[in-house]
Design a protein that fits this description.
Oligomer: single chain
Number of helices: 3
Number of strands: 11
CATH superfamily: Calycin beta-barrel core domain
CATH architecture: Beta Barrel
Number of domains: 1
Helix content: 10-25%
CATH class: Mainly Beta
Strand content: 35-45%
Length: 215
């Protein structure tokens, strides 16, 4: 009985999370000749799009880090202006040069059940000039309900993004066709209350990748 209740809750949450009918867009064009080394450093989230319409965090940043075990991406944000949250995922680098911008993030949770210990998500760099802007997106598909979820980052090297860089960053989103509402529904990052009252010492679930297993 408990298992049935948990499954029902999980599926109900999935219906609210996966909102776009069908599978994820195929053959999405990414940045050509992508150079990961030039992508290092801090990026500020200037605008974002979440297909489920949720906007739970502000003052978000992304930063590449090198550790002895590999290259990692730290997603830092402020939750409701009160709590500092962060999520660290290991970057899986493509073996082919042609697909260098088709990155994947791997999150590991030691205390999670075996099926949920390792979670892998796409992290595609659609465009960047490395010094001012970057456009990144992820997409997850649920075969159970035949819908997908999308999240788009418009990143800036500075807390604010100039108009020209914004237009260049938005341009790759035109290829999504039916999802052109992305550009109309972009949310500007709220950089108020960027000094949280509380800090977390343990990394938490990333809000942009909330479902760890195919459903």
């Amino acid at each position: 009985m408990i298992n049935i209740i948990i499954f029902c809750v999980f599926v109900t949450n999935a219906y609210g999370y996966f909102t776009i009918p069908g599978k994820c867009p195929e053959n999405v064009a990414v940045q050509e000749d992508f150079r990961l080394a030039d992508f290092y450093g801090k990026w500020y989230q200037a605008y974002h799009y979440s297909s489920d319409g949720q906007n739970l965090n502000n003052c978000s940043t992304l930063e590449l880090m090198t550790r002895p075990s590999g290259i990692y991406l730290n997603q830092s944000r402020i939750d409701r202006g009160l709590f500092h949250r962060y999520s660290i995922g290991k970057i899986e680098i493509p073996t082919r040069v042609e697909g260098a911008a088709n990155l994947e993030l791997i999150f590991a949770y030691k205390n999670a059940p075996r099926r949920l210990k390792t979670r892998k998500y796409p992290f595609k760099v659609l465009a960047t000039n490395y010094n001012y802007y970057a456009t990144v997106y992820t997409c997850q598909y649920s075969p159970l309900i035949d819908k997908h979820f999308m999240y788009v980052w418009i990143l800036s090297r500075n807390p604010s993004l100039n108009v020209v860089s914004k237009e260049l960053a938005m341009k790759p989103l035109q290829q999504f066709g039916v999802n052109n509402s992305i550009q109309r529904n972009m949310v500007k990052e709220d950089r108020n209350k960027c000094v949280p009252k509380y800090y977390d010492d343990v990394p938490l679930e990333p809000m942009t990748f909330r479902f760890p297993v195919p459903i």
